[in-house]
Specification:
With 426 residues, the chain is an alpha+beta fold. It folds into four domains: 95 residues, 3-Layer(aba) Sandwich (Rossmann fold), CATH 3.40.50; 69 residues, ATP-grasp fold, A domain (Dna Ligase, domain 1, 2-Layer Sandwich), CATH 3.30.1490.20; 123 residues, D-amino Acid Aminotransferase, Chain A, domain 1, CATH 3.30.470.20; 75 residues, Phosphoribosylglycinamide synthetase, C-terminal domain (Glycinamide Ribonucleotide Synthetase, Chain A, domain 4), CATH 3.90.600. It contains 13 helices and 23 strands. Strand 10 and strand 11 form a beta hairpin. It binds adenosine monophosphate and glycine. Adenosine monophosphate (AMP) binds next to strand 17.
Length: 426
């Protein structure tokens, strides 16, 4: 079969790398892809939100399945677009429809859903431009730190956590009255601050049945010890040591099952990857957020741990018989270190030649912001997050050691990475 994957990050390289290993696959196409996806398939220069061009490509390349990496096309309704099109409706889409993608697309929707189905999450209230004063009064009832969230998608920047009450009131005003995040902050969720350690849990579901994928932990801040600005992710590890069987049983019983049952009761079918952003508060899991996709950079440590044929599992999603499919997980640890361009997540330069790729051992390289310079026959940086280096190990330390040894061999001007992944788990 022929599969089209949408996206251009490390997650999509990991997906294409895995899917290309399936004996069921004839060819992988990636839109728009990167230098890494070009090694396992064919990149198509199409924007992930350009549905008409995606349709043309699907017809022309005789695509049999669409796998959606990032959230925006899902929240914008790519699955609905396929389902409602005479030619495309028979082609399975891995990724939920618009109404189910609201779990990520609207924090207010997600919170109301969790309340309705008694899924553990922080207490909250939602405010609009007309209720700013009530919002300020609500902030006064909370203790610092104050958590304010733009309702809609804001490119990962919509969550603001402040220690000072006046600053929190000002932020609320800026989001609602001044539309700091545009339409995304026309509603703002204010919630109780939860103290604990975070982890990411993923399930693959056909709407009725589900498989728990390996859990992971990502490292979002740019600086060591989780300091400095948030990034798209500086690395990930899987499994997570504190996610022991007792904890994961709580996650499954209190969070995963009620979420999937809630979606069914609401008449919202969900097909694809569902990502639970969780926090462990004294051994009890709470939901921080839902995402309607795999995480990036979590995918770069989670996907390498799936031993089974992922195409077979995705067929189970498409056909509604995921329960009949077997999934085998590699017991080893996987650690994935992200290399970024100097200056990221602020301003950074691109176009730097990447060298040393031939000297790597015992690792998998997943590209993100890296492109081919065909004329010069070299790979150059093209983004802030350039690549992820993933290694396995029998222990977390072994996996990290192997990934870091390889990181040293890769060179590009301005290379930066965090040296302390896993520091909070040892
Ligand atoms: P999100 O964009 O929803 O992932 O939120 C960004 C980050 O803000 C999360 O990864 C958490 O670190 C933090 N965060 C969000 N909500 C809360 C909360 N209620 N309590 C503590 N931290 C939070
Ligand atoms: N790593 C977090 C995310 O993908 O949203």
């Amino acid at each position: 079969m022929k599969i089209l994957i949408l996206g251009s990050g490390g997650r999509e390289h990991a997906l294409s790398w895995k899917l290309a290993q399936s004996p069921k696959v004839e060819h992988i196409f990636i839109a728009p892809g990167n230098a890494g996806t070009a090694m396992v398939g064919t990149n198509l220069p199409i924007d992930v939100n350009d549905f008409e061009s995606i349709k043309m490509a699907v017809i022309e390349k005789e695509i049999d399945m669409l796998v959606v990496g990032p959230e925006v096309p899902l929240v914008e309704g790519i699955h609905d677009f396929f389902a409602g099109d005479r030619i495309l409706s028979s082609i399975p889409v891995i990724g939920p429809k618009k109404n189910a993608a609201q779990l990520e697309g609207s924090k207010d929707f997600a919170k109301a859903f969790m309340m309705k189905y008694q899924i553990p999450t922080a207490a909250y209230a939602t405010f609009t431009k007309d209720t700013i004063e009530e919002g300020k009064a609500f902030l006064e009832t909370l203790k610092a730190p104050y958590v304010l969230k733009a309702d809609g998608l804001a490119a990962g920047k919509g969550v603001v956590i402040l220690d000072n009450l006046d600053a929190a009131k000002e932020e609320l005003n800026s989001m609602l009255a001044e539309a700091k995040f545009g339409e995304a902050s026309s509603k703002v969720v204010i919630e109780e601050f939860l103290k604990g350690i975070e982890l990411s849990v993923f399930v693959l579901t056909d709407g009725k049945h589900y498989k728990m994928l390996p859990e992971a932990k990502d490292y979002k801040r740019i600086g060591e010890g989780d300091t400095g600005p948030n990034t798209g992710g500086m690395g990930s590890i899987s499994p997570v040591t504190f996610a022991n069987p007792t904890f994961m049983q709580k996650v499954e019983n209190r969070i995963v099952k009620p979420t999937l049952e809630g979606l069914q009761k609401e008449g919202i079918p969900y097909q694809g990857f569902l990502f639970f952003g969780l926090i462990n508060v004294n051994g009890e899991p709470y939901v921080i957020e839902y995402n309607c996709r795999l995480g990036d950079p979590e995918a770069e440590s989670v996907i390498p741990r799936i031993k089974s044929d992922l195409v077979n599992l995705l067929e189970g999603v498409a056909e509604g018989n995921l329960d009949e499919k077997k999934m085998e997980i590699d017991d080893r640890y996987a650690a994935s270190v992200v290399l970024v361009s100097e200056g990221y997540p602020g301003k950074y330069e691109t176009g730097k030649e990447i060298k040393g790729i031939g000297n790597l051992n015992n690792c998998i390289l997943f590209y993100a912001g890296a492109g081919n310079d065909i004329e010069k026959n070299v790979i150059k940086t093209s983004g802030g997050r350039v690549m992820a280096v993933t290694s396995y190990g029998n222990t977390l330390n072994e996996a990290l050691k192997s990934a870091y040894a390889n990181v040293e061999n890769i060179e590009f001007q301005g290379k930066y990475f965090r040296k302390d992944l896993g520091f909070d788990l040892k």
